[in-house]
Write a structure and sequence with these properties.
Strand order of the largest sheet: 1-2
Number of helices: 2
Largest sheet: 2 strands, antiparallel
Distance between the termini: 16 Å
Length: 75
């Protein structure tokens, strides 16, 4: 994902605007000029929506990517 570290930092910055809300799913896009734009924050973000269709957990598919993201040095 292009500009991943910047996206993470933008989401963290946005989350601090209202720290009482402990969980937000951010919709962030990259414009054609490479500017980042927050579309919205969803208090009801649903990370398990991908398994609704087949009722099979997706953790084994996502875990390698999450491990890779966690290994990145956040700057």
């Amino acid at each position: 994902i292009p500009q991943w570290v910047k996206i993470i930092n933008l989401a963290k910055e946005a989350a601090l605007v209202c720290p009482q809300i402990r969980y937000i799913g951010w919709d962030i896009t990259i414009k054609s000029n490479n500017d980042l734009v927050i579309i919205e924050g969803n208090s009801g973000a649903d990370p398990d929506v991908t398994q609704i269709q087949d009722q099979i957990g997706k953790w084994p598919l996502f875990k390698p990517y999450l491990d890779e993201i966690r290994s990145l040095e956040m700057k």
